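Re-run with default settings, no changes from the original entry. Doing this only to confirm the output is reproducible before filing.
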Amino acid sequence: MATSNIRFGEGITAEIGMDLADAGHTRALVVTDTNLAKLPPVKKTLASLDDQKVSYELYDQVRVEPNDQSFLHAIRFAEQNSFDCIVAVGGGSVIDTAKAVNLYTNYPADLLDYVNAPIGKGKPVPGPLKPLYAIPTTCGTGSETTGVSIFDLSSIHAKTGIAHRQLKP
């Protein structure tokens, strides 16, 4: 069974900057939502990156219950910035959005190309993605441990997703 590397405990969020620096990362895309951007988990994350001199861009427009349009918005933002890793701070919606951003910025395609069949084409992820570090702020979806990214496809009012081991944080 393939699993994600999981670290937990009081104060662990403050170590993300050290983790990124130790891995040789110099520029992160931090993905979160508008409400979390004002709260301690994101503030601790950004302070840790600052302390370790890891530069970053903050995308704080993740939609609760993401849809195709919110995924595309996040992907377009990421395409305008350069980064060597992604840090997702939030619940399943944030982490799922970060997974999609990672996939489509590394292997640009029509949104439905990688979406599971029969709704999408179900194409496999072509290769490795950038490292994705997930800092979950909720529990329940387990998105921080899976290779699944779920969203609502607005045009047909259906929840669907992308599933591949490479998406795993």
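The helical segments are 16-22, 40-51, 68-79, 92-106. Residues 92-106 form the longest helix (15 residues).
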